[in-house]
Design brief:
By secondary structure, this protein is of the alpha/beta class. The chain contains 14 helices and ten strands. The strands form three sheets. Strands 7-6-8-5-9 form a five-stranded mixed β-sheet. Strands 3-10-4 form a three-stranded antiparallel β-sheet. Strands 1-2 form a two-stranded parallel sheet. Helix 2 links the parallel strand 1 and strand 2. Helix 4 crosses helix 5 (about 100-115).
């Protein structure tokens, strides 16, 4: 009986291995994203377009973590394609001084190229850091710019994502540039910031200009009047090895150049964060409305 059981077990294992081999997708690439809505949406936009235009299977690795975690995964070859931002790449990864939008893009191409990565042209929008506070409070104090806010910052508690608090292009340099001294700084996940300011747990948050929640909450987005923050234009990054193996994805990803402006990205983020739409559906809807793919019959 024991021999029979072992024999059957071995047969099951072999069958399982063979079955697994049958269904392995040889032509596949891995698409990564950070732990925020926008990054995941952009990943699915790229991934769905690749699958629609080629025979390549896309494997998604979502919510990998902050920018440095995703960047290391890219360098290590754990992911093949990822959306990222020019200012983040130049300042946060390579600790270089950025320039204007064109200069920062060229620096991005040069720097990542040295590490075996290709930077494509941008999607079309700039998602930079900003501060947002209650509209009525901003109106009462006459706060429009970061410089205006500096005079009152000591009375405000800041809610900020953990990464912003530590990044070289984040809070430390920002505070120094504008002379900001907050009453308190609370680190939190991005999705919690808007609930926290709405509940009065913090007074001001470090939002992003394409945040979908800005359409739902009555907040004033302040102006970076000294242009402290560098350009953060979103763009696809692809490993050179991946592009060599699948050269057809270059033409596919180039179809996304300049196709997404700030308003369009903010609306897509809002559909997920405010309306509860599935990321996959939002990405597909964008591609269909942009004429890049045809609607799928349901």
């Amino acid at each position: 009986m024991r021999k029979k059981f072992v024999s059957l077990l071995l047969m099951a294992v072999v069958a399982s291995m063979l079955t697994g081999c049958i269904f392995i997708e040889e032509d596949s690439l891995t698409l990564g994203s950070r732990n925020n809505t926008e990054s995941i949406i952009l990943s699915h936009i790229m991934g769905q377009l690749i699958e629609n235009k080629t025979d390549i299977k896309v494997i998604y690795k979502e919510n990998l973590g902050g920018s440095n975690v995703v960047w290391n995964a890219m360098l290590n070859g754990n992911i093949d394609v990822v959306p990222d931002y020019t200012g983040t790449i130049v300042v946060n990864y390579y600790h270089e001084e950025p320039g204007n939008a064109e200069e920062t893009l060229e620096m991005t191409r040069r720097l990542v190229g040295e590490d075996g990565i290709i930077a494509f042209n941008t999607f079309g929008f700039n998602n930079t850091y900003t501060l947002a506070l209650d509209e009525s409070k901003a109106e009462e104090l006459g706060i429009v710019t970061f410089s205006d806010f500096a005079a009152y910052s000591k009375d405000f508690t800041l809610g900020a994502v953990f990464e912003f608090i530590d990044r070289p292009d984040g809070l430390p340099g920002f505070q120094k540039e504008y002379g900001l001294k907050f009453k308190n700084v609370k680190g939190m996940d991005h999705g919690i910031m808007y609930r926290s300011i709405n509940a009065g747990e913090v007074d001001v948050i470090n939002s992003y200009t394409t945040d979908g929640q800005l359409q739902e909450f009555d907040l004033r987005v302040l102006e970076d009047d000294k242009s402290y923050f560098p350009p953060y234009h979103a763009l696809p990054l692809v490993r050179k090895e991946t592009l060599k193996e699948y050269p057809e994805i270059e033409a596919v990803l180039k179809q996304l150049e300049g196709m997404i402006d700030e308003e369009a990205m903010q609306k897509m983020n809002a559909k997920v964060d405010n309306d509860g739409m599935m990321v996959e559906r939002v990405a597909e809807e964008f591609l269909v409305e942009s004429g890049l793919i045809e609607a799928v019959a349901r």
